[in-house]
User: Which sequence fits this backbone?
């Protein structure tokens, strides 16, 4: 029996409401009840999730943290997305971004997103340090990096699409 069958993924899977793309305000929830971060991210609970985004050439693989057990929680999703998007981009990955003849300006837009991200850091040592780190996966979102939620896909109960929007001032 596959892990997905063991966790009941053959039935319709729902994402935790705080992670759903159906709400339109980023992470809007009432602070008065118990925080949902330790709750299962899906119903039924799953042992891992793959998160895709149309602007990212990578799948973000989200697994439970050792301390939380064998199912992915809301906290695992949020921390996993953050950690994945803070990963440095290799020269080869950046080169691949420019290899799409249907999108010849991709590298320039990714570079502009990197520069814009670094420019939001106040001048000084912190900005210089971030500039030296180079491109990160988040820069491939081209500034469309505010979390809106996760939407289900037709590819399986464990594959979700990350929905993002541009930062508004």
Assistant:
């Amino acid at each position: 029996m596959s892990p997905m069958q063991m966790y009941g993924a053959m039935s319709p899977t729902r994402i935790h409401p705080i992670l759903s793309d159906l709400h339109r305000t980023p992470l809007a929830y009432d602070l008065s009840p118990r925080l949902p971060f330790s709750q299962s991210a899906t119903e039924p609970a799953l042992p891992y999730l793959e998160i895709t985004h149309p602007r990212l050439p990578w799948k973000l693989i989200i697994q439970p943290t050792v301390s939380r057990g064998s199912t992915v929680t809301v906290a695992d999703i949020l921390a996993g997305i953050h950690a994945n998007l803070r990963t440095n981009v290799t020269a080869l990955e950046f080169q691949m971004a420019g290899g799409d003849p249907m999108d010849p300006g991709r590298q320039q837009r990714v570079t502009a997103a990197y520069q814009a991200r670094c420019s939001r850091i106040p001048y000084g040592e912190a900005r210089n340090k971030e500039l030296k780190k180079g491109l990160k996966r988040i820069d491939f979102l081209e500034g469309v990096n505010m979390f809106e939620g996760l939407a289900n896909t037709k590819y399986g109960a464990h594959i979700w699409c990350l929905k993002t929007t541009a930062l508004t001032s």
